[in-house]
Amino acid sequence: MKKLIRNVLRSSWVQRAVGFLAAEWLRLVWLTNKFSFDPANIYERVEPQQPAIFAFWHGQHFLTPFIKTKDSHRAKVLISRHRDGEFNAIAAERLGIGTIRGSGDHGSAFHRKGGVGAFKEMVRALADGYNVALTADVPKRSRIAGLGIIMLARESGRPIMPFAMATSRFIRLNNWDRTTINLPFGRGALVGIKEINVSPDADAATMERLRLDLEETLNAATRRAYAMIGRPEEHPHG
């Protein structure tokens, strides 16, 4: 039975259907939640610094395609090659976001699951004027930022823009990253506290300091987003 279910989920028509439905659900959520922004002029602040690297926590990622509000905001997102990634990729592309397929940050081991190719493709995308979005977590370790994004910023010379999005109505799953499924007809918040720049000659100690800064900034942005909608967030392990 498990094999049958696995084969059904791998079929292209099921993946396309799920991706389509997910995209339209998220569009409904975005359109029916009244969003506040912190700072209020966040787009005016970020736009002059594009292309940029947009970083967010895994499990809090479903609404991130909607930070793209203009056709001039060209963007690509890193999505894993895992089966679940197929649904995400189809949904992202339906919402106007290009995809780069490969692994996330495995303790900087980019050779895993097409990571080297994905890293190079992200560097090329930034050089071509695309914003690049990716989760900051080390896989299966929620809210622990990896060095991957710091390495990408050092290599590309582009700033990291950590941000968080939250809605007042949601379902939280009891999995490793406490995935949040956003629901329609509520309030939402988008928070970006500051950008993080990485010098091209940053040494290992500097990169570790910036990794911790990214982790703390994302946690602060997430707390702030949930506070703005009156739903103080519990830590995923709390």
Describe it for me?
This protein has 238 residues and is α/β, with parallel strands linked by helices. 39% of the residues lie in helices and 20% in strands. It contains 7 helices and 12 strands. The strands form 4 sheets. A 5-stranded parallel beta sheet has the order 4-3-5-2-8, with helices on both faces. Helix 4 links the parallel strand 3 (75-79) and strand 4. Helix 2 (12-32) packs across helix 4. It is globular. The model has no long low-confidence stretch (mean pLDDT 88).
Main β sheet profile: 5 strands, parallel
Strand order of the largest sheet: 4-3-5-2-8
| Average pLDDT reading | 88
Distance from N terminus to C terminus (CA atoms, Å) equals 35 Å
Anisotropy-based shape = globular
SSE string, helices as H and strands as E: HHEHEEHEHEEEHEEEEEH
Give the tally of β-strands: 12
Summed up, the helix count is: 7
Alpha-beta classification: alpha/beta
